[in-house]
Specification:
Layout: H1 3-26, H2 29-56
Helix pairs in contact: 1-2
């Protein structure tokens, strides 16, 4: 897996977690939902990249 893509995916996961926590703290369900979606999207991309990496080796 390319280090750039891995870093980008981890960044998306972290950003999503931050948005989710902020949304919970201030009671903003919309922000919480967006954070959860962004976190999930980053996790899915991470799994896809790991799968690609497994087929390359």
């Amino acid at each position: 897996m390319g280090i750039g893509k891995k870093t980008k995916n981890i960044g998306k996961i972290a950003e999503g977690k931050t948005k989710e926590a902020t949304g919970k703290a201030v009671g903003n369900e919309s922000l919480e939902g967006k954070g959860r979606a962004q976190k999930t999207k980053g996790q899915v991309k991470q799994v896809i990249e790991k799968g690609k990496d497994a087929f390359r080796h």
